[in-house]
Amino acid sequence: MEKEESRKNIKNRLRTLKGHIAGIEKMVEEGKDCEDILVQIAAVKSSMHKIGMIIVEEHALDCLLSQEEAECIDKEKAKKIIKTLLNYTK
Question: Which of 12, 54, 62, 66 is the most buried (most CB within 10 A)?
Answer without folding.
Answer: 54
